[in-house]
Write a structure and sequence with these properties.
alpha+beta, 8-stranded antiparallel beta sheet, 4-stranded antiparallel beta sheet, 20 helices, flat
């Protein structure tokens, strides 16, 4: 029998009225494609074109009254949170229901989402169930058992169901139903996530260090691995990834390392050399974000392909470099975390290895010769410059049609629309904006335009169909409010060029700086050849580019 412990519901209604007709001037703009639908006070449907919004209401009675009015958008959203107990099971349920009809349509569409957090007090397992029914009657159901990171996703639903800023009664009720001695709601610093996982830990008698809760969230190894290792989480984690030994157990217990780094260095250095690293290094060298490592994958199955060029001589020197870095009195240990966000020693080492791999095409005997961190920095700069000399002998020029060039030049209204057309343009923009747009020089299937007003810039990317697919401020930040109108004007200009048939792909000139030879090709020809200039000539910055390659800029 199901016992209802707690229930609360919130329901919202919204009616959006539309005019039965549009101003003829507005319709002419639409016809000439001079109006972007997303910026109109209304929206577009395939059959009935544009409807202009006239009024709004959030009254339930109005919703019922206008139920059959096809000149209205109708939205009904209902959220319900329930705590219930059935035998040995305690369940926290979130129900979302959305019923809506768009203007000009006859029928309503219904969507729902249901999320359950169920704890079985008999087996001491918990289950997260998610059921979704979307448009088209597609129903998706997923169940996960003891998924720790899944508990963190529950916080999203918790936020939705806090009907007031301090309303968390349903969470207190759920935890008190599970555990009459819970501290959740009594300790102001104890989150629901922490409280729930601590309860799970206690019931399953899991052992571990002081940061056990954090390990459970990020690296939970499963009950089978725990049982095999006496319910001790650290040996269980290391056992699953194939690194179980006294050295790694001691490292994990006492130094709280980022396990991603531990696995990486185990692959890079091997079990023989990693033991010679100063353990304090793992205390300070950390990723600037939380990582969730898949502990089901053995460490020796994820070896970086670049590591096969590293010899024992290289490994010994890497150990010396890292130990010198760790022991250096010139390095403030309190600022290590800040250094990581700009570029840590791990990133430098990985990039150094990649450059060495590329240099081996020209110098087969090249190796890591540095033995101190200072020597390593100098060597890294030297190798980067050397590779640049070997490979960066090609200069790329975009030969754009005069229509685009003139339109941008003539359309400037207090701001500059700068069309990036060669290596120097891309490098200058990348340096000023602190982004990776310089790596787009050999992308060929987009147009990069820098919008500049004073010292402020926005880097934009357009397709040859006239669409702006990305726009970024410095450090990949959103567009500055002072430049929004300028970017919108640019979007109109480029789209209009496309509609007129004047937005054409450029020809590409490639010049060899050594012998002076020049070739001119179309974008299609270069794409067919899969032409791609190397990115390895700018050192660590390019390491970051490869990691952030999906981010534009």
């Amino acid at each position: 029998m199901v016992e209802l412990v707690y229930k609360k519901m919130e329901e919202r209604y919204r009616v959006t009225y539309h005019e039965p007709l549009n101003d003829i001037g507005l319709m002419e703009n639409i016809k000439d494609r001079k109006t972007n639908a997303s910026r109109m006070d209304g929206y577009h449907t395939k059959n009935l074109n544009y409807f202009t919004v006239s009024d709004y209401s959030e009254d339930k009675e109005v919703f019922i009254e206008e139920y059959a009015n096809q000149l209205c958008d109708l939205d009904n959203i209902r959220k319900t949170v329930v705590v219930e107990k059935e035998g040995d099971k305690v369940r926290l349920s979130f129900y979302y229901y959305h019923k809506f009809r768009k203007v000009g349509k006859k029928f309503f569409t219904k969507e729902y989402e249901r999320v359950y957090l169920t704890y079985n007090l008999k087996t001491n397992n918990f289950y997260i169930t998610k059921v979704i029914k979307g448009i088209g009657n597609r129903r998706n159901r997923r169940i996960r058992c003891n998924t720790m990171y899944g508990v963190t996703t529950i916080s999203n639903h918790i936020h939705d169901f806090k009907f007031t800023n301090d309303d968390s009664q349903f969470l207190k009720t759920y935890m008190s139903t599970l555990d009459s001695e819970t501290q959740y709601g009594k300790d102001r610093y104890l989150t629901f996530e922490e409280s729930f996982i601590r309860f799970f830990i206690g019931k399953n008698e899991i052992k571990g260090p002081n940061h056990l809760t954090s390990l459970m969230i990020k690296l939970y190894p499963g009950k089978k691995a725990l049982k095999k290792n006496g319910n001790n989480i650290i040996p269980a984690i290391l056992d699953r990834i194939g690194l179980k030994s006294k050295f790694f157990i001691n490292l994990m217990n006492n130094y709280k390392p980022d396990l991603t780094y531990v696995v990486m260095y185990a692959n890079l250095l091997g079990l023989k050399h990693i033991k010679n690293l100063n353990k304090d290094f793992f205390k300070y060298e950390r990723l600037p974000y939380e990582t969730f490592l898949d502990v089901r994958v053995k460490y020796d199955n994820v070896i970086d392909s670049d590591y096969d060029i590293i010899t024992d001589y290289d490994r010994k020197n890497i150990v010396k470099i890292i130990n010198d870095f760790t022991l250096s009195e010139s390095i403030d240990k309190n600022t290590i975390g800040q250094r990581n966000q700009a570029g840590n020693i791990t990133g430098l080492i990985q990039d150094h290895i990649r450059i060495i791999r590329k240099l081996k095409e020209y110098e087969p005997d090249i190796k890591i010769r540095a033995k101190t961190f200072t020597e390593f920095e100098n060597e890294h700069t030297n190798y980067s410059e050397k590779y640049s000399l070997y490979r960066n002998s090609e200069e790329i020029y975009y030969l754009y049609d005069s229509e685009l060039i003139n339109e941008l030049k003539n359309s400037q209204n207090g701001c500059d629309y700068v069309l990036l057309s060669n290596d120097m343009d891309y490098i200058n923009e990348s340096t000023h904006q602190s982004n990776c747009v310089r790596t787009y020089i050999d992308k060929f299937d987009s147009i990069i335009i820098s919008v500049r007003r004073g010292n402020k810039r926005v880097t934009t990317e357009f397709t040859f169909n006239g669409l702006c697919i990305q726009q970024r401020g410095s450090y990949n930040s959103p567009t500055d409010v002072d430049l929004i109108d300028d970017v919108e004007r640019l979007e109109f200009i480029v789209n209009n060029l496309y509609l007129r048939g004047d937005l054409k792909p450029p020809q590409i000139k490639i010049k060899n700086k050594i012998n002076g030879e020049e070739t001119i090709s179309t974008v299609k020809e270069l794409k067919d050849k899969d032409f791609r200039r190397s990115r390895g000539n700018e050192g660590f910055l390019d390491f970051l580019d490869e990691e952030l390659d999906l981010m534009l800029i």
